Hints:
Layout: H1 6-26, H2 30-50, H3 54-74, H4 76-88, H5 93-118, E1 122-126, H6 133-136, E2 140-145, H7 148-154, E3 165-169, E4 172-178, H8 194-204, E5 209-213, E6 220-224, E7 227-230, H9 234-246, H10 252-263
Amino acid sequence: MGLFRWQDFLDIFIISFVVYRLLILLVDTRAMQLVKGIFVLGLLAAAARVFELQALSWLLAKSLTGLFIAIPIVFQPELRRVLEELGRGKIWQRRQAQEKAEQLADEITRALIYLQGQKMGGLLVLERTTGLKDVWRTAVKVDGEISQELIVSLFWPNNPLHDGAVIVNKDRILAAACYLPLTENSNLSRWLGTRHRAALGVTEVSDAISLIVSEERGEISLAIKGHLSRGLKEKQVRRLLLHYFLAKEEQEGGFWDQLRRELRDLWPGSGEKDEV
């Protein structure tokens, strides 16, 4: 038996890499369950051969053959999506991160716009590099996936959890009914209530981002680094959230500059001149 050539190692590496990427594309699809089923049948077939179970080996061999014929028919949409991804050359993690960020940004944006339309108050805090465990460890832990329905239900009037902030980190809602430290800034307009002062306060002691929905004025505001911008539009909210979910690996300066560019045309509401 000859020694392995370097071409053999390269061959194994390429095949392993392609299989790995294909499996990544199939995650959270119906086809992934099929892959798991085929893997189990393969193990059974191998065990049947080892123990010389001829009838079972014959049955499993026929079943696997039938499955490979049926796969292109039953899972045609999933296979087409995989081929499209390969054709675009977008099978890398960057594209997956982009799609995930867009989904999360859409969910939160729709929730905030709904709260705004119904004039229901809300305070959402986006945790960044500074941990906020001291804030939410005594609150009601949620640990749920981000969704419009969950966010709206947490701020629904008369809900026991609606009075307080909701803390978000990455793709999870950590806790609800969180009480935040109030800002120490004494120059704020008297028209700003406790919700806005709490949103500013948490950004003064951390690098978190606060999004506030006012139930009195029906407007969305942003608080970051102790500064407040009011009257955000839907597109601005979505872009800011998209930057947040994509900025996990970006530097602080780059993220800060993006926020400034997004808000450069924003005119603050009445009262003091708030800016980011």
